[in-house]
Amino acid sequence: MSILIGALTMGLILALLSLGVFISFRIFNFPDITTEGSITLGASISAAMIVTGYDPWIATLAALAGGFLAGALTGIIHTRFAVNGLLSGILVMTALYSINLHVMGKSNVPLMSDRAIITGIEDFGKSLFSISGDVSLLGSTVPAKDVFILGSVFFIVVTFGFLLYLFLKTDMGTAMRATGNNQQMIRALGVNTNVMIILGLAISNALIALSGAVLAQYQGFSDVQMGIGMLVLGLASVIIGEALISDKSLGYLIAGAIGGSLIFRLLVAMALRIGLNPNDLKLITAVFVFIALVLPTVLKKYKKRGVQSKC
Amino acid sequence: MLEINSISKTFNADTVSEVKSLNEVSCTIEAESFVVLVGTNGSGKSTLLNAIAGNFFPDQGTIVLDGVDLTRMPEHKRAKHIGRVFQNPFSGTAPEMTIAENLALATKRGQLRGLGWALPHIITGEFRERVRPLGMELEDRLDNPIGKLSGGQRQALTLLMATWIKPKLLLLDEHTAALDPKTAIKVVRLTEEIVNRERLTTLMVTHSMQQAVNLGTRILMMHKGRIVHDFKGQEKQRLKAADLLALFDEIRKKEQIDPAAAEMINQLYV
Q1: DSSP, res B108
Q2: How far is B9 from chain A (nearest CA, A)?
Q3: What confidence tens digit (pLDDT) does each residue in A185-207 have?
Q4: Would the CB atoms of A192 and B116 count as touching at under 8 Å?
Q5: Structural domain that includes position A186
Q6: ipTM rounded to 2 decimals
Q7: Residues 73-132 of A with CB under 8 A from B
Q8: Count of domains forming chain A
């Protein structure tokens, strides 16, 4: 049971990442590798600030702002200087590696004894329900704090998912979606597409950095290497999410990105439990995303062939 | 009123593929006039339209619309004054978004887009009212993605979107060229209706001579980056498609003769 709760919590924290990836990958149609730098940036900023004594909430907000700036920078390099989108992301990601080292002062910052939002949530939960120690859940006993953490992370993710949904339904958000869909059309309707791309990538990376900040506080450390493979992981979640839903409208897509992250984490937890070598995790994730990207084209080809052979 | 003062544009300047697309083009388009632009392939008619729309800045010259200098204004800012329909029916709409969302985008053409709800409930009624006259039964499908519609339907909606807020200038770039003949006629009829009702200043590029003589109040013919003929008033009314074709032939013949004549002179005197 506690493995399940752990997987779900992790899935929800990384759902913030997949919401961010959803914006760059599905709205603007390009995989933004800034992700790998900005998730670490979020973790680094929050960890470094918490260690130096800042309030964990303020540290988390600062992480969000850091991610926003990182994404904006990628957007500016891409639009104002006409650098290929993927390359812009690579530049910022590489630069962020050094920045993250500077922010932390070393390659790893442990948070063991420091008050983070996670412990804050624990205390709040305990005082709210006036329980401590273990609770009984679906017939098994689990530490109460784990349940509180899961509940609060769920609340955070749903809040941000809903805010994102609301934003994308506003005049500005609709223009942003149109920018990803048909730049020529929306420019002819008076929208500065450069601004839309910069803002969109900023929001995307703000969510990703937030995910990193919560992740660092949940696992109790920030590490300069933690971003590696995070983009592919986010892509996997978004793709799983799309496979889950039949209705491709915006609300379902956002819910799908969150659900996709949860399912992906559950699959990983199961695979590890039946003896998967953790070292192979990124390989398998990459293969999975590859198959998911290629499968539709392959299926189409086979369908066409089928039609031709009938003729 | 649109004033174009001797604009020029050379693409790929100083390379082997140098193309002088616009060569000191000047013309004045009166308010509420419907001007049809014709010309051979590569004559610069689409380039002229794109220069006005702001796809690129001209090398020289000025473009002034109702007293506003557009010459160095970025494309998205010009959109406040200009409505556009493209040749490709896929260019004017966002395929993955619904009809209603596309229309909502058009209702804010050239305005600041803030955090207001893009699709308030009140507006869908208005959408239905203005989509119904298209006669395409789209008013009950406002929640469908626009990408599922046919080219003609998308072009009709693009036309509606370009004129949702009355533009100071409507630019139509061969907007029926990619449609089947029957749909093209429908879209042309719709164009006429909207332009006449809203009394729009319109500049339309077309390949169809029939369209050129049937529509509008004035015909400009372009060749090699210049305006070579200008028909208006009575003259335009009397013009027939055959006359235009004859003019094209004449231009073509002149071109064929010139190099040959040059060759002859060369042989005789050198």
Answers
A1: T
A2: 21
A3: 999 999 999 999 999 999 999 99
A4: no
A5: 2-310
A6: 0.88
A7: none
A8: 1
